[in-house]
Amino acid sequence: MKFEELKRSLSSKLAQNYILFGNDSYLLDYAYTLILRASGMVEPSMNETKMDANDADAKKINENLMLAPFFSPKRIFKLSGTIKDSIQKEIIPALEVDARETIFVIDAGMDKSGYDKILKYFEVVDCNKLSSDIISRFIIHDLNACGKTISSSALRKVQEYCLYDMSKITIELKKVIALVGSRVEINESDIDEIVTKCEEYSIFEFTEALAKGDAMKAYSVLESFRSKKNNNLMYLIYNHFRRLFYAKISKSSTQTLADMLQVKEFAVKKSLEQAKLFKTSTLKAVLEECARLDEQVKLSMISQDNALDYITLFILNNRG
């Protein structure tokens, strides 16, 4: 089930076993909190056990799964990471016990495939990025609880700057709330001045400025990059233009492209938009230059700053 379906599911039935997976740590933590609340568990020091997969074996897991709660309707056992197949096989009998009083929650992180052989014993909760509409509702709800409102343009921008990642959005909004003081409404200028843009968003900005021939904007973003002292910046730009090239020539769906390039669907949609701003031949030429410069930077044949200046001028002069 999707994360947004979890609350409704818990109101009708609490399962014995859950696997949480996804790329948003905020949603992974929130999903666990929802399960914990639904269980009615009290006295966490006595009835909540957390274990890392690296420290787990079949004996420890089975013991925890079969423990009875202490003056509480349920116990919670949370396992983080992926355990070996051999361990998974040994815990199946405990997973099949219907009357078990311990709720088992696995936080599988970004990838649940390590549990494919035992998924049928679990309710699986997808904690990947939410849609903009759902994120907006979360933001508005949280801000209202703090006595704040937000303009529609600011609401859109904070999501874009944080690439729709609830973990990042939550952190950035705490900064905004603290810095706007007693003022009630958060506006677009607050987001521009306070929120730290994700690096990937800045690369989208940089690319768009280059595609439109806006040299001043491109160099402004470039200077912002340099101030962060990222030694892999040339590689990130190379990787981004590789994505644009594949988006330009591919006839695959956005989800297939996202899987192939190992990026989020949002990034693919944005890449498809930006790829339209360039000719295929231009993207191919830029990609070749990026590959050459990235290799020279790695071999210390050229400084990253010089490589960045060169590729910026190259794109501005060959953007047709």
Tell me the Rg in angstroms: 24 Å
Strand composition percent: 5-15%
Helix content bin: 55-70%
Structural class: alpha/beta
What number is the mean pLDDT? 91
Give the CA-CA distance, first to last residue. 45 Å
- Taking strands numbered 1, 2, ... along the chain, how are they ordered across the largest sheet? 2-3-4-1-5
Q: Could you tell me the CATH topology label of the largest domain.
A: Rossmann fold
H and E order: HEHHEHEHEEHEHHEHHHHHHHH
Write down the overall geometry.
globular
Overall CATH class of the largest domain: Alpha Beta
The CATH superfamily label of the largest domain reads P-loop containing nucleotide triphosphate hydrolases
**CATH architecture grouping of the largest domain:** 3-Layer(aba) Sandwich
What is the number of independent domains?
Answer: 3
Weakly predicted, low-confidence segments? none
Number of helices: 16
| DSSP strand tally | 7
Q: What composes the largest sheet?
A: 5 strands, parallel
What does this structure look like?
The chain is of the alpha/beta class and 320 residues long. The chain folds into three domains: 3-126, Rossmann fold (3-Layer(aba) Sandwich); 132-194, Helicase, Ruva Protein, domain 3; 199-317, Zinc Finger, Delta Prime, domain 3. The chain contains 16 helices and seven strands. It has helices spanning 3-12, 25-39, 44-47, 58-66, 85-95, 132-145, 152-161, 166-180, 188-194, 199-211, 215-227, 233-249, 254-261, 265-275, 280-298, 304-317, and strands at 17-21, 48-52, 75-80, 102-107, 123-126, 149-150, 185-186. It has a five-stranded parallel β-sheet with strand order 2-3-4-1-5, sandwiched between helices. A two-stranded parallel sheet has the order 6-7. Helix 1 runs parallel beside helix 2 (25-39), helix 13 (254-261) packs across helix 14 and helix 15 packs antiparallel against helix 16. 32% of the residues are buried.
